[in-house]
Predict the 3D structure of the following.
Amino acid sequence: MKKRPEEYRAGSRTPPPASGVEDDRGAGPDLDDGPTGPGAPTDRPGPSAPTTPGPDRPPVRRGRPRSEAAERAIVEATLRLIEEGIPLSDLSIERIARTAGVGKATIYRRWEGKEALLVDVVRSLDPEDPPLPGTSLRDDLVVLMENIHRRGLAKRSSALLVSVFAQMQSYPRLWEMHHRVSVLPRRLQMDEVLRRGIADGEIRDDLDFDLLGDLFVGPILVRTVLRPEVVWAKDSAEQIVDAVLAGVRPPRWPSS
């Protein structure tokens, strides 16, 4: 029975070549494997090595740790190829591996294919969101609005991101993966904050929930996409949150 890609990561170290992709076994040293040859360090015990830790002996490590250096090299190689003007359609695992100085097996151990790798590459360019303060509904919403605005500015000012996003929309599977991995978790985070506000009686419960979220996000999208020339003030996020909350509070909510 033919193994699925995820079985190779859990079992065999080197997946068989996919159609159109030649096998890279024996293709040279793999960055993920580390030094090889006589005298090279290894984390696997020999035949007589004890496997039970004693009082003066640390536990024996089995297997090899995930190599962050290899992943970083792969992501940076992919970015470099895109910056050189290589279209996404012409990017191949073989080309990325050659540029990164790793074997194709190293890439396939971490990503099931080119689409999954590209999603992580795009995510690496996203500014990291600071955690929500959790002090109040208003405070959490203000931080969320600032996060959305910051990501919008990054996408607009980065020629690389503009190019990648324009190309990604021509690949439905890639676009869907990006939405699931990067966009949806942030939307769910905002939904959680709004549901908590409804449960606590700070937001009316008779509003269309999707519309409620759009009321907060809409002004930011207008400023970053349709009216980028408008200056984003230091308190713009607070003004948006306060204006929307004033309209969605329950009728008897005490004024601040």
Q: What stands out?
A: The chain is about 55% helix and 0% strand.
